[in-house]
């Protein structure tokens, strides 16, 4: 349920953006910041939260995260301006960062057999996909009935109820290896991600010649170099670069970034298109994405079956092919009045997204020592949030170009968003290729070497 809540909040806000724009009057870049402030903070803190769960107890950190998430949701529902909403979304993300990696770590420690773990991650993947894909549907219903603030306050009682259930039913677990928090590394990660997101979001508005854009790029380069230097010298780094010597782990991180960038960009473009271009009310726009939610649930279950019976490569190939075909179909339909093909594209995208989660999780965690499950899970979760935030930042620029012009808005949006659909199609093909790389004998041997190296510490 906590996984469903966090991922629901990733996307439920999308359908509320037009309502937020009507009342708070943010620009397109302001709308992007409302979404990406949450995703960026979530991505930056996931690794630290996973490490804290390993050290201080996963159930304890999990409960603190749920209460903080509820508090941030309540504050967001009361935000008087765009700036305050962005700030309160950061509070939400601080709490949410304590949920996903700790949840993955708990799964890894309870389900130690590969087949059982694959099945458990199938259920987890269904919760992730259902939360993200059903966000627009539930958001549309809430916005149309009670306004945009309702998408935040409805999370409060659910989060508190889950916190009580976790306290009663969840067993406590922690790593026998106690690692000191790496606050310097954490700060550098946050600065690096903030610099990247700022540059991507503000580039269309400020232009490539802007001193602020040059400053953003300088911050990205300096923080990236400093992070590499600092982390390699620390005894207990925030990011242990030895993880990335495992080819399956590294490839799974890249696939997660690509998959979530495609999904995040797709949902952001879809919200603008259905409400601002086609003129649909929030509920109808949300209902149009219901096939995507159903496809995600089906894809998650299919992926769990494929991973158990055919291996991760087949599951990832299915995911990549579905994403590529979905984007190709949608790119040709945008700008027309066709709804049948548009819905077919939504089903296929949901199927591909659902199929990707389980093999990515299984590949990332395979062979990792149980004592490092929290950090490995946090890296996997962080890569997803980085991908989604980049998707919103990049594809949001296309939406701004299409909606910000006069005349035939449908044709303008179709032309402006075409590069985005091409990129998502290429992303699907890249997932297939990376799945092949991650499934080879050399990849498995690299994972075994890294696991042995980490066990010695």
TrEMBL record:
Alphabetized UniProt keyword annotations: Antibiotic resistance, Cell membrane, Membrane, Transmembrane, Transmembrane helix, Transport
Major facilitator superfamily (MFS) profile domain span: 1-445
Biological process terms from the Gene Ontology for this record are: response to antibiotic
Describe its membrane topology.
Multi-pass membrane protein
- What does the record give under GO molecular function? transmembrane transporter activity
Q: Name the InterPro entries for this protein.
A: EmrB-like, MFS, MFS_dom, MFS_trans_sf
Recorded hits in Pfam families, A to Z, give: MFS_1
The Gene Ontology CC terms held by the record are:
plasma membrane
Q: Where in the cell is it found?
A: Cell membrane
Q: Tell me where on the tree of life, at the top rank, the source sits.
A: Bacteria
Concerning its family, UniProt says: Belongs to the major facilitator superfamily. EmrB family.
Protein name (database record)? EmrB/QacA subfamily drug resistance transporter
Species the sequence originates in: Kitasatospora kifunensis
